[in-house]
Design a protein that fits this description.
mainly alpha; globular; single chain; about 625 residues
Length: about 625
């Protein structure tokens, strides 16, 4: 049954890609049906798991012996436990809603069948990643997710910007993938195995140095897939893909993979304080960087992309806190999956009604024209900024509390991020749904069809009640503890004091944004005279410029230098030697002219020379 989770969407992708145009009329329905079937299989497995004692809930299924090289043996096996089933329900549940939404969103696209095939492939690859029972098999799913993201981000490949964005995502992620490959090699040389059970069992006997290098390599991998500093630049450009792709990448699949990897490898991070500190630092930097970028984006999708970068930063920070934070990292990942998917689908609904215009300066007053979108987007907005009792309040506040228990500066960074999140999300709400209408003359806003609004309603319901359900009914802490471990955070600041402080910070950020964008007219054209900070946020904090200066330009110079050395040095030396031998041969060839008198003269000269030398020797 575990294999069916992956097999169903994989079968859909195969049928649609190989079936060709014959599947155009019904291919999208097949993709939705198979994704939904995978969800119901996962739901059945979850119910079975809940009926067993905590220590017996993990199950494994070995499909076949995959690699056998001497003593190194890796089975192709799947592992389902409390951690992986949480991801299964998120991937298949949110993924199926996005599939349904895409029926309406992609209704008039001539390549709709190919789009749904890629969606199925994306879901299948992510399921393989979270169900693998070894780090080597995770790598297969890891690369599958990278391939699917490349295909979907560059789906509109006729647009140079989309083609460039797909290549950028693919190349940047290869840097992170190198980290995972190095980590797997270190595991093999250290433990002689790459299975979860083997690595977990051997971690206690490994040296601190080996564990630190493994942890840092795994962190590099996570930075690539989860768009964390310094490998975050691809995520904003990934908005070139269709909006449902953005929802799938940001909520249920690709960017969550890095958080899963760190939490799954907790046995390594538990024993390396250096690696955990690096994880916390990366998470804190990224949550502030992403929030900062979101404050100045006029493109509604890129604003949400900066938000995703920031929210994943919260999860990475929590994962770096060790047993104190693993559960809260996954808790926030699950709640974020619901409200962020709802926000992206809401953004797609707005674009649908605005002739695909993504510029929020051309919106305004849409609450009266798109009431369902307004309400569902608004509920997601309240969830992400952490207003009680919405989902984000329960998960993000736990991370802020745990961060203060670890370090005051880390806690302050998490708290500041909450205030900035409230600012840029309130700005987004105000510019999109409030104020005066700033529509173009040929735009006539209208509500999206039911096939798009119903998934938005379901996700809005999760944005309201999902956090409470997982915390109080599902006991998320007790559910994940057998897999990840759990320790109560240090009570540096009690929740009785911290929660009001956090809410005041959120309200201050939201209030300031409302005063600037809700109470004042919003210019249709972005002001050219802005502060240095605004220019930096508009330029994605100069991430591309930094990559160009630090990596691309030196890489080009190195490549040119190596090319010159190869052409002038290696090829020149070989060519020069060949020319020298050729010249000598040409001159020596003149001695072989075919005349007997010449040869006799040469022999006479040689004999005379030998006689002369012998005479000198005797003297």
């Amino acid at each position: 049954m575990i294999a069916a989770l992956i097999g169903l969407p994989l079968a859909g992708a195969t049928a649609l890609l190989l079936g060709g145009r014959r599947t155009n009329a019904w291919g999208h329905f097949l993709a939705v049906a198979l994704s939904a079937s995978s969800f119901f299989v996962g739901l059945g497995l979850l119910i079975q798991m809940m009926g067993r004692p905590a220590e017996e809930r993990a199950v494994s299924q070995q499909l076949f012996q995959w690699i056998t090289v001497g003593t190194f043996q890796v089975p192709f096996g799947l592992h389902l436990d409390q951690l992986s089933i949480a991801f299964v329900m998120l991937i298949t549940g949110v993924g199926t809603l996005i599939h349904i939404y895409s029926i309406g969103y992609m209704a008039h696209d001539e390549n709709r069948r190919r789009f749904f095939a890629y969606l199925n492939l994306f879901v299948a690859a992510m399921l393989l990643l979270v169900l693998a029972d070894s780090y080597l098999l995770i790598y297969v799913g890891w690369e599958g997710v990278g391939l699917a993201s490349y295909l979907l981000i560059s789906f509109y490949q006729h647009k140079p910007s989309a083609a460039t964005a797909g290549k950028k995502a693919f190349i940047v992620n290869r840097v992170g993938d190198a980290g995972l490959a190095i980590a797997i090699m270190l595991m093999f040389t250290t433990f002689g195995t790459v299975t979860f059970t083997g690595v977990d069992a051997g971690a206690g006997q490994a040296s601190a140095q080996h564990l630190t290098w493994m942890g840092l390599a795994l962190l590099l991998a996570a930075c690539g897939k989860s768009a964390q500093f310094p490998l975050q630049s691809w995520l904003l450009d990934a908005m070139e893909g269709p909006t449902p792709v953005s929802a799938l990448i940001h909520a249920a699949t690709m960017v969550t993979a890095g958080v899963y990897l760190i939490v799954r490898a907790h046995a390594i991070f538990d024993l390396s304080e250096t690696a955990r500190t690096a994880v916390v630092a990366i998470g804190a930097i990224t949550l502030l960087l992403g929030a900062f970028i979101g404050t100045a984006k006029d493109d509604i999708k890129k604003g949400l992309a900066g938000s995703t970068m920031s929210q994943i930063g919260y999860m990475v920070l929590a994962a770096g806190l060790g047993p104190v934070g693993y559960v809260f990292a996954i808790f926030h990942l699950l709640t974020h999956g619901m409200f962020k998917a709802g926000l992206f689908l809401g953004a797609g609904s707005v674009m649908h009604g605005m002739h695909d215009d993504v510029n929020m300066r051309h919106y305004g007053a849409l609450r009266t024209m798109m009431k369902i979108t307004y309400v569902t987007f608004g509920l997601g907005f309240l969830a992400i900024i952490g207003i009680p009792p919405f989902a984000g309040f329960w998960s993000k506040d736990e991370i802020i509390h745990a961060a203060f228990g670890q370090n005051t500066f880390v806690g302050a960074a998490a708290l500041l991020g909450a205030g900035v999140t409230a600012f840029y999300m309130t700005r987004m709400m105000a510019m999109t749904f409030f104020g005066e209408a700033r529509w173009q003359d040929d735009v006539h806003p209208h509500e999206s069809p039911a096939v798009m609004t119903i998934p938005m309603m379901v996700l809005a319901f999760g944005s309201v009640f999902g956090g409470m359900a997982m915390l109080f009914l599902g006991d998320i802490e007790g559910w994940l503890e057998p897999v990840t471990g759990f320790a109560q955070p240090a009570n540096a600041i009690s929740n009785t004091i911290l929660i009001p402080i956090t809410l005041v910070t959120v309200l201050l950020g939201a209030g300031y944004a409302w005063l600037r964008y809700g109470r004042r007219p919003v210019p249709v054209t972005a002001p050219a005279q802005v502060s240095i900070l605004t220019r930096a946020a508009r330029a994605d904090a100069y991430g591309d410029a930094l990559n160009e200066a630090v990596f691309m330009r030196p890489g080009q110079y190195l490549t040119r230098s190596l090319t010159w050395f190869d052409t002038k040095g290696i090829d020149g030396a070989i060519g020069g030697l060949a020319a020298a031998i050729g010249g000598i041969s040409a001159r020596a060839r003149r001695l072989q002219n075919g005349y007997t008198r010449s040869y006799a003269l040469t022999m006479l000269g040689g004999a005379t020379l030998i006689a002369f030398v012998l005479l000198l020797v005797r003297l």
